[in-house]
Amino acid sequence: MKNIVVLTGAGMSAESGIATFRDSGGLWDQYKVEEVATPEGFMRNPQLVLDFYNKRRRETINAVPNQGHLLLASLQDHYNVHIITQNVDNLHEKAGSRQVLHLHGELMKIRSSRNPELILDADPLNPDTKLGDKASDGSQLRPHIVWFGEAVPMMYDAERITQKADILIVIGTSLNVYPAAGLVNCVADDTPIFLIDPKDVLIVRPNVTFIKKGASEGMKELVGLLSNL
User: Fold this and answer.
1) CB 207 within 8 A of CB 192
2) pLDDT band with cut points at 50, 70 and 90 for residue 22
3) According to DSSP H, which parts of the chain are helical?
């Protein structure tokens, strides 16, 4: 069974109503990065940061996978599929994908602000984290999100998985965010790469097939292409 590795970004979940960060009108037009996505911002105004991610968490709970998510999950019937996502929502899991690695953390998890390995599942029925909510080590609970300036602890595993890809699929990411964008260079030169995005994405690699569509329409086309490989 061939190994398919899928790298997904914000464009994967946009059709499900999940707000993107970098597009015009996205979250970074409404919030300053340094206020809600850095350790320093959390230290300055933890209430603002908690409220920001509480809102994102409730958005995720109510979101449903789009056809792109579902078609990716269906590839598991014929391939060994690993999904490496920059997204912090759980839509891949909701769609039925079994092997999902979250590079930048997960909204539906919270953790100690002192020990990054002390991680808890958020309660979907009571998802908000409040000031005064403590981890077992006595520290304030914070979102289980990799903020700017923090290490990306899952990168080693992501690189190891990507190196074994027989086929690489890239969906809905500008390939501008590092170190995640560097994963495309972990595959061999003769590995076919399929890049699904309605926008122009710069990638300096051989064997790239561009599908200039959104996630759902792009995945429909890709399923047909894969059947001909």
Assistant:
1) yes
2) low
3) 10-14, 27-30, 33-36, 39-44, 46-62, 67-74, 91-95, 155-162, 215-227
Q: Are strands 193-196 and 141-145 parallel, antiparallel or unpaired?
A: unpaired
Please say if 78 is a catalytic residue: no
SS3 156: helix
Omega prior to 179 cis, within 30 of 0: yes
Which strands sit side by side in the sheet containing 208-211, from one edge to the other?
100-102, 80-85, 3-8, 167-171, 193-196, 208-211
Task: Say whether 100 sits in a helix, a strand or coil.
Answer: strand
- Pick the catalytic residue from 69, 82, 92, 104: 104
Burial 26-37 (b: 16+ CB within 10 A, else e): ebeeebeeeebb
pLDDT digits (tens, 9 = 90+) for 125-171: 999 999 999 999 999 999 999 999 999 999 999 999 999 999 999 99
Nearest to 201, CA basis, from 10, 41, 59: 10
Q: Contacts by 184-192 with C-beta closer than 8 Å and gap 24+?
A: 184/7, 186/159, 186/162, 187/5, 187/162, 187/163, 191/165, 191/166, 191/167, 192/167, 192/168, 192/229
Task: Give the DSSP letter of residue 189.
Answer: T
